[in-house]
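From the methods appendix. Each design record in this collection lists the tokenized structure first, followed by the designed amino acid sequence. Records were kept in a plain field format so they could be parsed without special tools. The example shown here is representative of the layout used throughout.

RECORD:
FOLD TOKENS (648 positions):
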């Protein structure tokens, strides 16, 4: 944007310099027609002015014209490239004799400047003089500067102008209003500066540029330059050494301080509807770059509560801006950018509110990240390393190492929000985690304690949390060791209903009902949000539980049948549990917030009959002898009760 504006001003004073020199050498009467002829010759465009022309010859060659209009060639949407209420230009005569152009005054007032690149890629600002046309060249503008040894600008200004930019190739458009620009160039060999301001989308932007010597840039040598800008209370400062050979390049230091990224994105017509975050951004460090990209060797970054450092690259030369880097962060707090859990007691219902993923479509990204702390909703993750790419709303993340809840994990995640219906898929492996802390933070359920492993694969689609839960598919397995199920004591329950023949059950030492185990695990499958399993297994010295059933995630309901087996006496913990155990079939039903465990009468009667039949058949077959086939009793029982051998 600044480059185009600078080019317009540069072409402007080059144009008026060429016209002034032409008028100085012309042995003709100076009038509006003469001005139009000389300007048209210098630009290769049709130029018109009002008949009222003020002209002076000495000590400076100058003129004042009104209603200046420079036409566009064919192929552009607007007939005029520039329209100005008034144009004043004055060149000192004596310096011209030594090849120095000293413009004492060049002022465009209330000018409308239209910068357009048409569908063929032609630019409206690529002026062509008649001399260029004769030589078969284009786009170089007035060639008077090729003979200029030095250039001095006094009062050079654009006053109350409007500048529009319309790129039909990239489909990019913007408009600047109230443009005011002042340029001071004492000499090409002395420090020069430009200050200005403009209004974009109803917000004022202030800019100041300084260069130690323009002659160095002109000849391709290195020159020191500085840029400061202010907008929406944000501050930008760049101090560089610049070189303009085949293209402009620079190296130096940059600092950016943006109090509210949210306000800036809204100002840039990219508003985000995420309620929290996207406030302060601070970036500083040494960098190198050109007109297409910028690279930091070790940038210091602050984004909201996130702080870190590392190499960082911004590439805006393609159709979409790409940010990439290797960052080391003290803490990565993602909670402000994800929907907050509802403030309700117990397990909350699934939200039907559409999830806003627009922030994933603003720019593309490619990052490797190491963080000492990662916070995602209620999850608290320690030292972690991951990398991710983001392309046009498709996020691919690889969790190389995540330390969480005293364990470790790895995983992969894909989130595609490029389509109307977002899709998510992932694969995760967690080992040796504190099950109670993890489940409490992840699901608000804290009834399981122990050290566990969990691995699963999932895939879902939908615009809301409820949609994704309803379309969830996948599979997995879990195994927890040396823990307990809190809130229900199965041994106490068995004692109360008179299952124990002898002994007195005292319950847990801390008075909290719990079912202790040495191992607890199962495989599971998920289809359209329904989790099913047929191999639940819980082991403890006094208890064996097998089970099967389902957890229906969309309505948050539970329907699981358990088949516990207890030893007949609290003292008798040795021997074969299958032969000595007493079965108590139960059903676990209800919701995530209110579930109950009750006897399954039909299954209990069946189980008692099977147990008695098993005991009698074992006695007949000599069940204690090692050489007797232990499956024979089981086969006989299954035949009696009508159960096939391959039934579960």
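DESIGN:
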């Amino acid at each position: 944007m600044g480059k185009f504006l600078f080019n317009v001003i540069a072409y402007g004073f080059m144009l008026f310099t060429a016209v002034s020199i032409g008028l100085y050498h012309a042995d003709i009467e100076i009038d509006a027609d003469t001005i139009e002829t000389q300007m048209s010759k210098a630009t290769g465009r049709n130029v018109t002015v009002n008949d009222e022309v003020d002209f002076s010859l000495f000590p400076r060659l100058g003129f004042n014209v009104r209603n200046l209009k420079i036409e566009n060639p064919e192929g552009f949407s607007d007939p005029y490239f520039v329209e100005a209420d008034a144009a004043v230009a004055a060149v000192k005569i004596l310096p011209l004799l030594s090849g120095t152009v000293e413009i004492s005054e060049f002022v465009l007032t209330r000018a409308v400047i239209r910068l357009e690149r048409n569908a063929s890629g032609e630019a409206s600002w690529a002026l062509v003089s008649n001399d260029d046309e004769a030589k078969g060249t284009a786009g170089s503008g007035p060639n008077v500067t090729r003979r200029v040894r030095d250039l001095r600008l006094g009062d050079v200004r654009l006053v109350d102008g409007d500048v529009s930019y319309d790129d039909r190739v990239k489909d990019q458009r913007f408009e600047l209003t109230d443009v005011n620009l002042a340029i001071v160039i004492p000499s090409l060999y002395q420090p020069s500066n430009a200050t200005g301001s403009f209004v974009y989308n109803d917000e004022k932007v202030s800019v100041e540029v300084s260069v130690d010597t323009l002659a160095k840039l002109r000849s391709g040598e290195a020159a020191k330059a500085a840029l400061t800008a202010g907008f929406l209370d944000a501050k930008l400062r760049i101090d560089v050494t610049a070189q303009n050979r085949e293209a402009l390049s620079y190296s130096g230091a940059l600092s950016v301080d943006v109090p509210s990224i949210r306000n800036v994105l809204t100002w840039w017509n990219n508003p985000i509807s995420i309620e929290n975050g996207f406030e302060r951004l601070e970036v500083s460090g040494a960098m190198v770059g050109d007109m297409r990209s910028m690279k930091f060797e070790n940038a210091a970054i602050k984004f909201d509560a996130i702080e870190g450092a590392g190499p960082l690259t911004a590439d805006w030369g393609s159709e979409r801006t790409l940010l990439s880097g290797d960052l080391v962060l003290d803490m990565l707090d993602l909670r402000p950018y994800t929907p907050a859990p509802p403030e309700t007691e117990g397990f909350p219902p699934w939200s039907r509110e559409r999830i806003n993923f627009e922030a994933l479509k603003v720019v593309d990204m490619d990052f490797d990240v190491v963080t000492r702390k990662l916070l995602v909703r209620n999850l608290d993750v320690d030292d972690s390393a991951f990398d991710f790419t983001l392309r046009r709303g498709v996020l691919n993340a690889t969790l190389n190492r995540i330390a969480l809840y005293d364990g470790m994990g790895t995983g992969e995640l894909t989130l595609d929000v490029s389509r109307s219906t977002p899709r998510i898929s992932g694969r995760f492996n967690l080992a040796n985690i504190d099950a109670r802390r993890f489940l409490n933070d992840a699901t608000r359920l804290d009834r399981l304690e122990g050290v566990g492993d969990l691995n699963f694969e999932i895939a879902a689609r939908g615009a809301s949390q409820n949609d994704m839960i309803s379309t969830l598919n996948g599979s997995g397995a879990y195994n927890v060791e040396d823990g307990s199920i809190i809130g229900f004591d199965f041994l106490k329950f068995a004692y109360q209903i008179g299952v124990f023949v002898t002994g007195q059950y005292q319950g847990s030492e801390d008075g909290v009902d719990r079912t202790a185990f040495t191992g607890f695990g199962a495989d599971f499958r998920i289809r359209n949000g329904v989790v099913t399993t047929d191999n639940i297994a819980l082991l403890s010295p006094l208890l064996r539980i097998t089970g099967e059933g389902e957890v229906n995630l969309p309505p948050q309901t539970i329907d699981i049948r358990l088949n516990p087996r207890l030893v007949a006496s609290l003292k008798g913990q040795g021997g074969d549990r299958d032969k000595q155990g007493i079965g108590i079939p139960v059903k676990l039903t209800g919701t995530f917030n209110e579930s109950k465990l009750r006897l399954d009468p039909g299954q209990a009667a069946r189980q008692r009959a099977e147990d008695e039949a098993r005991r009698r058949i074992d006695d007949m077959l000599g069940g204690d002898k090692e050489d007797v086939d232990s499956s024979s009793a089981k086969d006989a029982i299954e035949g009696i009760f009508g159960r096939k051998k391959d039934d579960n």
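APPENDIX NOTE: The chain has four domains: 1-185, 205-317, 358-600, 601-648.
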